[in-house]
């Protein structure tokens, strides 16, 4: 039987996952389909039953279901369990459902692809403490990044992640702006700069150190106001597109046992999102 996969979320129209996975199936001559499904919070239970009944081999989970999906799954991967959030569901050979979270590892992979690993023991500033930030903080810790500070509008949310990690420290956005010269790598993980958003920057980058690496996980627009300001200050910038493509590629590998071509996908999506950095 032809395999099929899906992404469930609300809203879902904006998702680039169907385009990406369908292109990989074609490129790798895999007889499979991937469809976007609009699933509201009220319909999650019905949707999971339908996905199982209709034989989906796996699916991605996006806002607002990343935590709500957990009670419907039989098993969680260690990182997903730690994060309390799932973005990938695999139907195992036994027919059970296993949840993974590929966002954080996807980010680390894209960062290291862009700038290598020489900065691994340098001071890192993570800005934001929402769901994506949580995944990235845990994945960075798991991959050996030890010197992590988390800044957030609501410091208590940053502190909660730090407490769970057992290392690092939590600071306010104002303190982060004042201490910017202390950090070698900055990762912008709030919803600032989103094409649909109303706020553009978590803080000013005037005090950014020369030679800093600045990443943003927002990828639409590709060049967020934060990255534009960092580039103007001479920083090496990393857009959020690599994270998006790698989180999808890791999900693809969980489903099909093969890693797709991420480089050509980044080029294709870059063109759709308005070209080069
Ligand atoms: P979330 O859970 O809603 O967290 C939002 C974060 O932004 C929180 O830290 C929040 O601070 C902060 N924030 C929101 N409005 C703010 C404001 N006006 N001033 C200062 N801080 C503000 O969202 P998420 O799921 O973590 O996603 C964050 C972003 O990452 C989204 O834009 C999403 O598109 C992007 N993302 C990208 C990828 C990718 O593959 N590249 C994957 C996942 C997510 P408080 O804690 O104070 O509320």
From TrEMBL:
Enzyme class: oxidoreductase
The UniProt record lists the keyword Oxidoreductase: yes
Enzyme Commission number(s): 1.1.1.25
Annotated ranges, domain Quinate/shikimate 5-dehydrogenase/glutamyl-tRNA reductase: 118-192
Residue numbers binding shikimate: 15-17, 62, 87, 103, 219, 247
Pathway assigned to this chain's UniProt record: Metabolic intermediate biosynthesis; chorismate biosynthesis; chorismate from D-erythrose 4-phosphate and phosphoenolpyruvate: step 4/7
Reaction catalyzed: shikimate + NADP(+) = 3-dehydroshikimate + NADPH + H(+)
Pfam family, one: SDH_C
Binding-site residues for NADP(+), renumbered to this chain: 78, 128-132, 217, 240
Gene3D superfamilies: Leucine Dehydrogenase, chain A, domain 1, NAD(P)-binding Rossmann-like Domain
SUPFAM superfamilies tied to this protein: Aminoacid dehydrogenase-like, N-terminal domain (SSF53223), NAD(P)-binding Rossmann-fold domains (SSF51735)
Job description of the protein: Involved in the biosynthesis of the chorismate, which leads to the biosynthesis of aromatic amino acids. Catalyzes the reversible NADPH linked reduction of 3-dehydroshikimate (DHSA) to yield shikimate (SA).
Similarity annotation: Belongs to the shikimate dehydrogenase family.
Binding partners and assembly: Homodimer.
Name of the protein in question: Shikimate dehydrogenase (NADP(+))
Organism: Lysinibacillus piscis
Taxon lineage: Bacteria, Bacillati, Bacillota, Bacilli, Bacillales
Designated gene of the protein: aroE
């Amino acid at each position: 039987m032809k395999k099929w996969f899906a992404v469930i979320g609300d809203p879902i129209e904006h998702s680039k996952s169907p385009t990406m996975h369908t292109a990989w199936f074609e490129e790798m001559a895999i007889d499979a389909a991937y469809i976007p499904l609009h699933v509201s919070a009220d319909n999650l239970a019905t949707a999971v039953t339908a996905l199982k009944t209709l034989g989906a081999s796996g699916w991605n989970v996006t806002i607002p279901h990343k935590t709500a999906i957990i009670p419907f799954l039989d098993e969680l991967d260690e990182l997903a369990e730690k994060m309390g959030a799932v973005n990938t569901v695999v139907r195992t050979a036994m027919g059970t459902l296993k949840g993974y979270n590929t966002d954080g590892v996807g980010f680390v992979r894209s960062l290291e692809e862009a700038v290598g690993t020489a900065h691994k023991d340098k001071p890192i500033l993570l800005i934001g403490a929402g769901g994506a930030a949580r995944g990235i903080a845990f994945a960075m810790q798991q991959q050996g990044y030890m010197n992590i500070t988390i800044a957030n509008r609501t410091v208590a949310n940053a502190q909660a992640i730090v407490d769970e990690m057992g290392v690092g420290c939590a600071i306010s956005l104002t303190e982060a702006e004042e201490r910017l010269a202390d950090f070698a790598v900055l990762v912008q993980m709030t919803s600032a700069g989103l094409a649909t958003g109303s706020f553009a920057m978590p803080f000013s980058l005037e005090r950014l150190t020369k030679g800093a690496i600045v990443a943003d996980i927002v990828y639409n627009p590709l060049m967020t106001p934060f990255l534009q300001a960092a580039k103007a200050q001479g920083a090496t910038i990393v857009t959020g597109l690599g994270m998006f493509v790698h989180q999808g590629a890791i999900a693809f590998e969980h489903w099909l046992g093969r890693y797709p071509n991420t480089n050509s996908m980044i080029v294709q999506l870059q063109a759709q999102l308005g070209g080069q950095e």
